[in-house]
Design goal:
single chain; OB fold (Dihydrolipoamide Acetyltransferase, E2P); three-stranded antiparallel beta sheet; 16 helices; 41% helix; globular
Length: 434
């Protein structure tokens, strides 16, 4: 499964970011367990408004702009670590931007996020998560000029993503918390934190969701620490099993489960297959199937269950199932894959072609040619660029099956798409004259 669509989007974003004023990414939430453990210094304190300075980074012509802010943090109380000064210099790393009285410092105060609010306090310091592609105007805390909890690390690098012996600073939204959370975080710092936060919950029942997330992650960390690969694989698979997932689990660790199961390789195959075997037609098993895709050929025992899912039109993406069959490489899947060349979803149709090519189904050459749409135009939720990518995938499948037969077909298809050279997307493509 080549994910050419993702590749195209990433490339397109790369062009946008190269010429844009800034760079954004989709942040992953920092769990409270991690937040407390990784922070060398946790203090209650407030920023001095007169100390905040905008500091642009050096940037090359073809790079996106970035910056950071330097400030002085007045320390009221130390919760973890040691600091001798009552005021310490900190860096507010790129992706977190302070606004004073609603005004942005990096543009000389030209942008006011509170336009229309006549009585908005001119000295209020708001820090916004501007680095997140899911941008929000909701500040991390109401006023960073008043006491809040600061989770500080010595960070370096352009975005503050590396921990080293640098100046203390914050880089993630979770690094700044309201002072009302002091009791909860003191419980997190206790010698027996899980017991302590359960006791805290009795006093502050509104923290139920936060406590649940903490306990979930603490248990997940224990699973990750299991040394026996068979037991670890079984326990991890429970998180992505519709029947065995922990109560109230919302899929928040699925990407980590997939990563660790991929690393376990063959040890993960048996519990993954067992998860498929116990699934019902309506169950959504995308993460299970994607993990099987990651493992590839050793996951061959999953093939009968993947074929059953295709036949039953389960709640799992056919695109993912076809990709998993491609990665496993079992030619016994050919007959089940062929009908998907007629699928209405162009993404599924193109993946069927790619899978058949990887399975070496030369008899499907003409079927794939017939599945290529005559006209490249918007279809359902796909724009022309998406359609071009999927058509290129199908042409690449033809080229993999039989380069000589494929070249004239590819030239004919390419002529129908004057704005795009689809041969650029075909691995190893060489024309007759090359």
């Amino acid at each position: 499964m080549r994910h050419l669509t993702k590749l195209t989007i990433i490339c397109a974003f790369g062009i946008v970011f190269t010429n844009a004023a800034c760079y954004a990414w989709l942040r992953m939430r920092v769990e409270d367990v991690v937040l407390v453990e990784r922070s060398e210094l946790i203090v209650i304190g407030h920023l001095r408004a007169d100390s905040i300075k905008y500091v642009p980074h050096k940037w090359e012509k073809n790079e996106g702009r970035s910056w950071e802010h330097h400030a002085v943090l007045a320390v009221t109380q130390v919760l973890k670590g040691r600091v001798d000064q009552t005021e310490i210099p900190i860096i507010i790393h790129y992706g977190l931007d302070p606004y004073i009285g609603g005004l942005c410092l990096k543009d000389g105060g030209k942008i006011n996020i509170h336009t229309g609010q006549k009585d908005f306090p001119k000295d209020r310091i708001e820090i916004l998560d501007t680095g997140n592609s899911g941008f929000s105007l909701v500040p991390l805390v109401e006023d960073a000029g008043k006491d809040n909890i600061w989770f500080l690390q010595r960070r370096i690098a352009r975005y503050g993503h590396q921990s080293q012996n640098g100046r203390f600073g914050i880089a993630d939204p979770e690094d700044l918390q309201p002072v009302s959370m002091k009791g909860y975080f003191l419980a997190c710092l206790a010698e027996q934190p899980e017991k302590a936060i359960r006791e805290r919950l009795k006093k502050e029942p509104h923290l139920a969701k936060r406590v649940e997330d903490y306990l979930f992650y603490a248990e997940f960390q224990r699973v990750l620490s299991i040394s026996d690969p068979n037991e670890k694989a079984v326990r991890l698979c429970r998180y992505i099993s519709p029947r065995m997932a922990p109560k109230n689990y919302r899929g928040q660790y699925d990407w980590l489960v997939r990563q660790h199961l991929r690393e376990l390789g063959e040890f993960a195959v048996k519990p993954l297959v067992a998860t498929l075997a116990k699934a019902e037609p309506g169950h959504k098993l995308d993460t299970v199937v994607l993990t099987i895709f990651d493992i590839g050929r050793p996951a061959n025992p999953a093939v009968p269950y993947l074929l059953r899912m295709l036949e039953q039109k389960s709640g799992t993406s056919a695109y993912y199932i076809l990709g998993a069959l491609q990665a496993i490489g079992d030619a016994n899947a050919i007959d089940a894959v062929r009908p998907f060349l007629a699928d209405k979803d162009m993404q599924v149709r193109s993946q069927a072609a790619v899978t058949l090519a990887w399975l070496g189904d030369k008899d499907s050459f003409d079927r794939i040619v017939a599945a290529i749409p005559e006209e490249i135009k918007e279809q359902n939720n796909l724009n022309v660029s998406d359609m071009c990518v999927y058509v290129a995938d199908m042409c690449g499948a033809l080229y993999r099956l039989d380069p000589a037969r494929a070249r004239p077909v590819i030239r004919e298809v390419d002529a129908r798409i004057p704005t795009t050279d689809i041969t650029r997307f075909i691995s190893g493509y060489k024309d007759d004259n090359d």
